[in-house]
Amino acid sequence: MWVDINMHLELMSTPPDQVLKDAHAANVTYIATGTHPEQWRWLEGRAPHVAFGLHPHYLTDESDWLVTLEDLLHRDEQRAVGEIGLDFRHGMPESDRQIRVFENQLSIAQSLDRAVIIHAVKSHHEVIASLKRVRCERFVIHAFTGSREIAQTYLSLGGYLSAGGLITREPQPRLVSVFQSIPKERILLETDAPDLPIAGQRCGSPAHLPQIGRALAEVLGASESALQQLSTQNAQRLFDYDFFQSN
After folding, report:
1. Domains along the chain with CATH numbers
2. What is d(CA 176, CA 216) in angstroms, rounded to the nearest whole number?
3. pLDDT of 47-100, one tens digit each?
4. Consecutive H or E run containing 92
5. What are 15-53's pLDDT values in tens digits?
6. Residues near 109 by Cβ (< 8 Å), separated by ≥ 6?
7. Which residues contact 171 (CB under 8 A, 6 or more apart)?
8. Distance (Å, whole) CA 229 – CA 227
9. The overall pTM is greater than 0.85
């Protein structure tokens, strides 16, 4: 079985039940990640595995979002924290506010010993600084596209790196050489569906994860079955969840 560690169920054009059915047919289970309080409420009970977090795209002035997040995490010890992080592209909320909200959530994850799914765009150095300040060591950088040097820093902090649909594109993106340089025991897979689709598709789906795995196995010089087993074991180690038992 393959594990898609990050997808966005509410953005899929296909109904949740059909998404799950298609994923099962492809031998895939997935973590549907949270982004904002309204979506958290919708997400409960609609996916085999869930994570809850306030994404930097959706920073809110609601005063009770942090209480709501803590409540959702306390209800089930298997729930991860995510998708959270920093995004310093033009038009995003001010960086100081993003950092404050990010570190608040890292602290919650640290106190509850939960895995964190991190979004990092034009912000790797600041994400690293926050991880060090909070001393958070249980995390994955989703859809990683950074340099080898940045990758090694994340690994040195205990993190994992996730490969997505970009790995299937031609010509091969720079990130291929980065994933070739890191230990296979720190590699995870995701679709980020419906975003970051595989080559030839307009929208992503968890059912496409085996094609991502196949492409990555080829560039790593590994068999598809070996990478499937290893990446699933990596997901189980990070999230402390038996994906086989729950599928």
Report:
1. 2-246 (3.20.20.140)
2. 8
3. 989 999 999 999 977 678 999 999 999 999 999 999 999 999 999 999 999 999
4. none
5. 999 999 999 999 999 999 999 999 999 999 999 899 999
6. 80, 81, 115, 116, 136, 138, 139
7. none
8. 5
9. yes
